[in-house]
Records
---
Amino acid sequence: MRKRLGRVFGTIVLLVAVASVLYLATPVFGAYPNQFKSARMSNSTPVSYIDDAVGQLEQTICDALGVTINTDFSAPVVIPASAKGVANGVASLDATGKVPASQLPTTGNFVGARILGPTGANQVLTNGTTNYISMANESFDTNNFHDPVTNPSRITIPAGLNGYYLVTASCLVTADSAAGEVLTGIWINRYDTIGQSSGSIKSITTYPGLNRSTVTGVIYLNVGDYVEVGVFPTGATNPVAQAIFNYLSVVRLGS
């Protein structure tokens, strides 16, 4: 087989060389080889003549090899059923000619979580330190942002969901007149410098009585980052975070 292909290739090179010589010599000798004569007479331009000659040469080679070149490009491209509606394939169409909803991207779906707490009993807050509010209840949690048992005060960003988040925290605190001020903030990874915006978004509430502080902001969070409600009392009497009436929520805005 290799010897045959070698002979065919040698023949191709020889025919191309002969055709080129004959074409260049035609103005002198006024003669054309029979296999190219009709092409030369029908098209007077050199480019057309060469195209026709190459076409006839291709046909001669195909006849020698016993192969056929398919030049019919009008036949439709058939996509196998196994390639439709699968990964690395193509989308299929329903009876209305539309892509089924199950094959459309899910980037527009709502992603977020909202947790509530403390649960069952009030959480006594320690004066002069940041208290992270434990929240074991969930209003919703689309992607397992929250674990009600392990670190229940946290909402943690799961794999593949880094991006910009609208974060909201609200805390209801009771205290007497000696409680002083209470700083309520959204804390990121327990960054402990309350005066820096990169560490917390804070609200200042002055007591006595029953008071609610609500804080909100847009924050970029990476996978593994977590947010918490942190309350820092500054008075002499320890205030209390009321059960159930506190919440923390995150809503993913995009990447």
---
Amino acid sequence: MGETISLEQRRQKSGQMNEKEQAIREDLAAVHRLAHRFGWDDNIYNHFSCALPGGEEFLVKAHGLLMSEVTASNLIVVDQQGRTVRGEGTVERSALHIHAAIHLGRPDAFCILHVHPPYSTWLSSMQDNRLKMTNQNTIRFFDRIVYDEAYEGLAVAREEGQRMCQALGEKRIMIHVNHGVTVAGPTVEEAFFDLYYLELVCKEYFLVISSGGKARVIPDEICLRTVSQMEEEYLEGAQLTLAAWKRVLDREEADFRN
């Protein structure tokens, strides 16, 4: 016979699950607010998500909300078919097909951020859309980006989401030609950290190109050595970064936790 679980144990387990989901909701809401603060958002479009246990459902913004309006409580839970399981509102079509496909195809992709920030989208629009290793920050992305070279319109079918997932492969960061970027991470902190620095280095690279001068590219062997040094502090940096920005939000936009 199976182990008997008391009512009190069930309540404790349910409470722990609720606390964990609340923490995820607050982190995901914070990233929406920060995307607006940093000018990464695109009206009511673009979408961030977090997988829930089991991999069949995920948290996402209800379509029609601005990122500046997102709170922990108004994030909705949707399933693989796009049905709203909890919350009010519906998921945007491309958000469903991109996030559902990647969450299912990449179980390690707990948090997925798909957005069209100005400088990353600028790079995606260039004929030569490869990020060059021109400064220390760019080395964070040495051999970490996959470039999706197929732009075929809006991702309004599951097949397009599956194609994106296949293009992503085992990497976490994808630049979509003529489109924008997708960042996938095992935690909200890591996904946000990567997106924050990706947009920053694309801006820095834009300034290099715009200067008209010849870029000075860092040799691969130095990049490899520097990457290994950066990896030692990567997780701590990601955790401390989101915590720091949440303190800013607590002072200025504390309703994100509601």
